[in-house]
Design goal:
Structural class of chain B: mainly alpha
Largest sheet of chain B: none
Number of helices of chain B: 5
Structural class of chain A: alpha+beta
Strand content of chain A: 25-35%
CATH topology of one domain in chain A: Jelly Rolls
Shape of chain A: elongated
Oligomer: heterodimer
CATH architecture of one domain in chain A: Sandwich
Order of helices and strands of chain B: HHHHH
Number of helices of chain A: 7
CATH class of one domain in chain A: Mainly Beta
Chain lengths: ~450, ~130
């Protein structure tokens, strides 16, 4: 073995001791290297929340919710109510250890079940009422012609009115009576003097939408095309602008549109653009690179800048999920998921591919039962494998506890682990390779 | 006990082992630098640079005082050209890698200036002493 200090001579006894100790030192160094490699290739992911410091930056879990609605800042969970908390990951893990610590020793959590499911956080929202066609949709059923105006289904009382207003008969989409059930019935359109709200116009090369009898201009043609098709518009000349006042606001892209400017990618929703922090977040949320629309400075300027969209980010309003098993579509709107009940309705909202999701993720639930830790009188933990959840799309885990008695928690800790398997090793090496490639190769969006 | 502590053979043994440890820590530090430049945070999320540098400094200080106490003097060798070339290439690659997102010409100028400064510092502190 390499002797770096040959010049220093020891007596035979110490020389032999030196050789042994040097061997131990090298074995120790190799062991530490392997241990470090193990930590890198089979990483743990820790999440924690302290009810003693609920606003601390060190809390890696977002604030737990009572009955999925009220933030719980003090850890009190009344009997028969539920406490839920979410952990967002970028890739799959094999095991989860859940540890709950009570504030006082009085609360006994032994045998209390912690249930968990895996999906996208937005898809786990409460179900809202089904949504009908998008405003501005032109529909026909038999010889009845309709416009979706301010969310209402308004019928043209006569074909003559429709023609005089300048609508193109070919732009009306044929639908079934079933499709028409989901927009409340509005008053019929009887006048050809005045256009109903939600009518779309094309003046020169610009598109406008009539909102509250004011013309709102689309910021660009590509923004218009994320909501409507060109044939839905009525062509007018420039003098038409004198007939209706022009609104100050411009209309941007459909909510949930992914756009890029330079090397940055943003998700647009409700007048705000959220910069996506990295490619890992982008891919873990189920978005596809091909759905990104490159935009210019003027198109981005109508949006306010939102906070950085990181791995903890939840799909915003406007996101559309498609359930793999039954091809049902859901639209995320104001923290609820709404069914788009028929394919025709879904088509009026879709402009790019939806985010695929497993319907089973709502019903596939794992449970583990807490046990008291040996070394602490107020700490309870349980461990479960996530094999059953492995094939479900999405990396957001939702945990839920429903105690039969009042309890008060002080800490929640989650430890996600990867098993020492060939598959996990392969995946880790692949991820590392992609990370290195990602650092050196810029992704160009067409 | 005091006698045991001052046992010269034991101190020499400690000196030899600390030299081996220094060699291992230096290798680890070099690999950490290279790996971190490829994937920032991959090792420092487990062991921070501060801890590695602290271990290196502690090791060097102990070696220095122990060597002083034991009156160990190594003949000052001529600078090994191969080592200098290896270190120059390694540091050039590390510096250039950290400047990749800059304009290529700006990166080359910064690299050239960094190497020039390193050369003068080397001459000032090491060549003069030798």
């Amino acid at each position: 073995m390499l002797d770096l200090t040959k010049e220093i001579q020891l007596n035979p006894h110490y020389q032999s001791l030196y050789k042994k100790l040097r061997l131990v030192l090298y074995i120790l160094a190799i062991s530490i290297t392997f241990y470090l490699a193990y930590l890198i290739l089979f990483p743990h992911k820790y999440y924690a929340f302290s009810f003693l410091n609920p606003h601390s930056n060190k809390n890696s879990l977002s604030i737990p919710l009572l009955n999925k609605s009220h933030p719980d800042y003090n850890g009190v969970v009344p009997a028969n109510s539920s406490l839920s908390f979410d952990a967002n990951l970028a890739d799959g893990y094999s095991k989860i250890k859940i540890t709950l610590t009570t504030l006082h020793q009085s609360s006994n959590l032994t045998h209390l079940a912690v249930s968990l499911r895996k999906s996208y956080q937005a898809f786990l929202y409460k179900k809202g009422s089904p949504i009908g066609f998008r405003d501005g949709s032109l529909l026909k059923n038999n010889q009845h012609f309709y416009l979706i105006s301010d969310g209402h289904l308004r019928e043209f009382s006569q074909l003559n009115i429709l023609k005089k207003l300048g609508y193109n008969l070919k732009s009306f989409q044929t639908v079934t009576p079933q499709d028409l059930k989901y927009n409340p019935l509005g008053s019929p359109i009887t006048s050809f003097q005045q256009y109903p709200n939600s009518t779309i116009f094309k003046i020169n090369t610009d598109y406008y939408l009539l909102v509250n009898q004011r013309l709102e201009k689309f910021v660009s043609t590509q923004a218009f095309k994320t909501r409507y098709q060109a044939q839905q518009s009525i062509e007018k000349n420039i003098s038409f602008l004198k007939k209706y006042p022009l609104a100050k606001n411009s209309i941007g892209f459909a909510d949930g549109t992914l756009v890029s400017r330079g090397i940055s990618v943003y998700i647009l929703s409700q007048g705000v653009f959220y910069p996506i922090n990295n490619a890992q977040t982008f891919e873990s949320k189920g978005w596809q690179w091909k759905n990104i629309i490159p935009i210019n400075e003027n198109e981005l300027a109508i949006y306010k800048k939102g906070k950085l969209f990181n791995i903890k980010g939840v799909h915003p309003t406007g996101t559309i999920f498609k359930v793999l098993e039954n091809s049902h579509y859901y639209l995320i709107k104001n923290h609820q998921k709404h069914l788009l009940p028929t394919p025709a309705i879904a088509n009026s909202w879709l402009f790019k591919g939806p985010i695929l999701i497993s319907g089973k993720s709502l019903t596939t639930m794992l449970s583990c039962y807490l046990k008291k830790d040996l070394l602490s009188s107020s700490t309870y933990s349980c461990e479960t494998t996530t094999q059953q959840l492995a094939n479900l799309i999405g990396h957001d885990y939702e945990f839920k506890v429903s105690p039969p008695k009042n309890i008060q928690l002080s800490f929640i800790n989650l430890d996600f682990k990867k098993d020492f398997t060939k598959l996990n090793l392969k995946n880790s090496l692949k991820n590392l390779f992609y990370k290195i490639i990602g650092n050196y190769v810029q992704i160009h969006v067409k | 006990m005091f006698k045991f502590m001052l046992n010269k053979n034991l101190l020499l043994l400690a000196y030899k082992l600390l030299t081996d440890l220094l060699f291992l820590v230096l290798i680890f530090f070099t690999f950490t630098l290279v790996i971190e430049s490829l994937l920032p945070g991959i090792i420092t999320s487990h062991i921070s640079f501060l801890k590695i540098i602290f271990l290196l400094a502690l090791n060097l200080l102990t070696l220095y005082f122990l060597g002083h106490y034991l009156k160990i003097n190594f003949p000052t060798n001529q600078t090994n050209k191969k080592t200098v070339l290896f270190l120059t290439v390694l540091f050039s690659l590390l510096i250039f890698n950290s400047l990749l997102k800059l304009n290529i010409f700006l990166a080359i100028i910064i690299l050239f200036l960094a190497l020039l400064i390193s050369y003068f510092l080397y001459q000032e502190f090491l060549e003069v002493n030798s």
